[in-house]
Predict the structure.
Amino acid sequence: MRSRNCGFGTATTSAPSTMNPTASDIKTQASVSRLRCINCGNVADRTDQDFRCPNCGDLFEVVYPGWLTDQGLTVGQPSESLKQLWRDRKTSFDASDTSGVWRFRELLPALKPGYEPITLREGNTPLYHLPRCAQSAGVQLLQAKHQGMNPTASFKDTGMTVAASFARQEGFQWVACASTGNTSASMAAYAARGAMRSLVLIPEGKISWGKLSQSLDYGAVTCQLRADFDGCVRVLNELVRRKPIYLLNSVNPYRIEGQKTAAIELLEQLNWQPPDHIVLPGGNLGNSSALGKALVEMRDLGLIARLSKLSVIQAEGANPFYTSMHEHGGKKLVPTQADTLATAIRIGNPASWKKALRVVQATGGAVEHVSEIEMAMAKAEIGADGVGCEPASAVTLAGLKKLVKQGFVKPNESVVLILTGHVLKDPEFTLKFHRGDLFAGTALETDAGALASQQRAPIVLDATVDAVAKTLEQFENEGRQ
Ligand code: F0G
C-alpha cells in the first residue's frame, strides 16, 4: 500500500506577464515552487507522504526559485502594481479572487493548469481596534486580526484551502490529520467540498465539543484516540507511511503557504505599514512559521520596508518552545507533557519549532508564556471589547501585558494580536468562567478570585418587569460596567 514519492510538488506555470494581466493570465500567473529541507537544504519536487526529508528527517518549506531574477527578487511585476492587482481583485466575482487566500496567489504555489482551488472564500478577516484591551495592556494602539472569522471559525482554513487543493490535484481519495480540534474541523470541511474523504485523529476528551461537532457535521471519520495530541501525531505519521493518505497537519508545507496570507492581508489592511509588533499563540508552531515567512518574503520582495517583530506566546502548561528559547538558547527542544485549558495549544512536542525559531530570530521577536489565570482574564477582556475569541487566542493579550511590563513592547508602539479562533469554538470555557467554575476544585481556585471583576454569570429571575428593573438598578447602584 505504501505510496512513496507521489508527487506533492512543483507546478509549472506560464511566465507572468508584466503588462496589465487579463483574467486568464491571472489564473495561471503564480510562482513556480519547489520544496527545500530546512535543515540539510535538500531540494525536491516530490516528497514522501510524511513530508519529511528522506536525507535528514526534517521539514520541507516551499521556495520560489523564479523570484530571483536579474532585476532582484520579484514575482514579475513591481510591488506597487502587485498591490494594485490584489486590490482590483476585490471587485471580481471569480472564486479565486473572492478568496482572501488565492487573491494573493502570486506568493503561493500554483496548481497545475486546469485545477481549481477548493475554496470556501476563506481569509477576508477583519482587523478590529481593541481600545479597552489596549488600556489594560498599557499600549496606545492595539488591534486584532480575527482569524476566527474564517468559514470554519479558525485560521486553519487559510492553509487548508491550499493544501487540500494540492491533495485533490494529486488524486488522493483520503486526507487525514491529528488535531486539537480546529485543523480537523477545517480539514473535514475542505475535504467534503473537494469530494475527498477525511480521517480525523483527536485526543479523547481533550477537545471542545464545538470543534468535535464540526468534524462530524462535515462528514469526517472521527477517531478519538486514548492519547494526547502528540500521541495522535505519532499514530498518524505511521499510518500515512502505510496507506495512500494525504497528510494535512502543518508539517505539510502547503498549509504554511496558505497561512502566510493572513500576514499579507493584514499588511494590506494597514496600507503596507508594518505594525511594530505582531503577537500570536504558539502550539505546533506552524502559524508562527507561516506569518514570519510571509513577513520576510514581503520585505524581500519590496512590499514592505521593514519587519514587524513577531512574538509567540504559549501557555505555561504547554511551553516547550518557551523553555527551548529561555533555557537552551533555541538550540534544542525538549518535549513536555502538555496541560492547559486552552486545548487548542495543548501540545508538548511542536513539529515546526525550528521554523518558528528562525522567524522569531529574523524579526527580533520574543517568546513568552502565560498562566491559566492570565489567559482566562485576557479572554474575558477581549470579549468585553465586543470581539471575543477562544481561549488559545487570548494568550496573545496576556503575553502582550508581560512584554509591555518587561519593556520589550513600548507604550507608543503599534501592536496587532492574531486571534486564531472564534469565541463559539469553546462555549463551555466561557460559561464556566462567568459562573466562576473554571478553576473550581483545582489548585488555582484561590488565585481565580482575581477574575471576579470580569465575571458576568447569567441571572435567573421571575418573569416580571419589577424583577428585571431591580436587577438593572442594582448594577447601576454598584457602578458595575
Ligand atoms: N490557536 C488555535 C485556535 C489553534 O487551534 C491552534 C492550533 C493554535 C492557536 C496554534 O497554532 O499549532 O500553528 O502553533 N491548533 C492545531 C489544531 C494544533 O489541531 O487545531 P500552531
